[in-house]
Amino acid sequence: MKKLIINHQSVPAIGLGTWHMGDNPQTRKNEISAIQAGLNAGARVIDTAEMYGAGRSESLVGEAIRDYSRETLFLISKVLPSNASIGRLEKSLDASLKRLQTDYLDLYLYHWRGTTPLAETVAELDRLTHTGKIRAWGVSNFDYVDMQELLQLPAGQNVAANEDLYNLGSRGTEVRLQAWQEAHQIPFIAYSPVGAGDSLGANMTASPAVQAVAERHQVSTYQVLLAWAIRNPNILVIPQTSDPSHAEANVLAGNLTLTKKDLIELDQAFPKPTSEPPLAIL
Between 20 and 30 A from 205 (CA), which of 83, 157, 225, 276? Predict the structure, then answer.
């Protein structure tokens, strides 16, 4: 199973996303089972955020991981821009920890840029790494220019990851950002690696090229999309599903290595942009 290093820890390159989970009491049992199925299949990373369901996603994760050894997990959550000031950030973190039923996060991300000065948010995130409540901090929805600015700050070099939208049909971060992050040893976390239940996701799975690759390897089209997204060693993907069997299959896609022929066909069907587009954000 492919792995990468985040904050000196080796983790499988396919983790578990939780956006849109925890909102519906009728699907809660299945969602918990899906998280557990993913963990049982070999996943370590669970990605959530205080924004997801106004904390309900974090509470769901806390329930799902109750019987797992904390040391075997790599938990990521995110702070909203409105809570990213010196006066509010630690309180927000404490609330996330309580919902997750843990006393620390492995990685805490600034969800996207807001009105609080970046220097203030980064200084507070860095301070929190000395409290024991977070092991590392990072950012999300930052583009190349944002990352350049970040690294100029006094504690900016301590950034442990950046999480952006990335999949076969949305490749803008390949133009500059991904290579730059790899050169600076900053892991890239890809959200919505198989789309987000939208037309793009449907277009990718319906693509004759994707289907042909899936048929050759006797895997699902989703597994092809995930294997493609982690073909480079600096990328972690966090697909979300509420279906336990789908969650297991997602994680097992980490064992699939695409051939040169596969990659050429997929590249021809969904070419990398020739110039850098605005950062794609959901």
Answer: 276
